[in-house]
Specification:
Blueprint (H helix, E strand, L loop, with lengths): L1 H15 L4 E9 L6 E12 L2 E10 L7 H13 L4 E6 L5 H6 L5 E5 L12 H4 L11 H7 L7 E2 L4 E2 L3
Parallel strand pairs: 3-4, 4-5
Antiparallel strand pairs: 1-2, 2-3, 6-7
Length: about 160
């Protein structure tokens, strides 16, 4: 069943992003581990003139994903120098796992087979304002964070409570 889940997700992203190179069961050399890392599927494309790499891990389990699994995938993301990562499961995530991804470029999602046609994975689906290495102008920073007014002072654009 897990292979069918993985294949269906791959087909969905391949159809949704025809302009990107999406490689199923990819192997990417780790810059720290110095070994090939297995990736369920990799997404390569261009964003604002820059080449980006995203990696996706599809997990079809009978229980929620725990922090150990999430931290392992964050390690792979860093090792292959991915700009973003997406972990998709059918069951959900422990609270510790959800807490852990707050400070990374990993997005967690829960998708059942029947929900695949209901999501609209835009660029914002993958990215958030915490992307490391992405420099924003003050106006762009403010525009992206309008809804998070508790985190900064609009007049001075000073970050608070971080």
């Amino acid at each position: 069943m897990w292979k069918k889940y993985e294949t269906k997700l791959f087909d969905f992203f391949k159809q949704t992003y025809p302009e990107c190179e999406i490689e199923f069961d990819d192997s990417i050399f780790g810059i720290y581990s110095k070994i090939e890392r297995q990736i369920d599927f990799a997404i390569r494309g261009n964003l604002a003139g820059k080449r980006i790499l995203g990696i996706v891990d599809c997990i079809y389990y009978s229980k929620k994903i725990d922090i150990k699994t999430v931290e392992s995938f964050i390690g792979i993301m860093q090792d292959v120098n991915a700009n973003f990562a997406l972990m998709i499961t059918n069951r959900g995530y422990s609270q510790a796992a959800k807490n852990r991804v707050k400070y990374s470029n990993l997005k967690l999602d829960i998708l059942q087979f029947n929900e695949l046609n209901e999501i609209e994975p835009t660029v914002d689906y993958f990215f958030n304002q915490n992307i490391k290495g992405l420099e924003l102008s003050k106006s762009e920073f403010y525009r992206r964070n309008r809804q998070n007014t508790a985190y900064f002072d609009k007049k001075n654009l000073i970050i608070k409570n971080v």
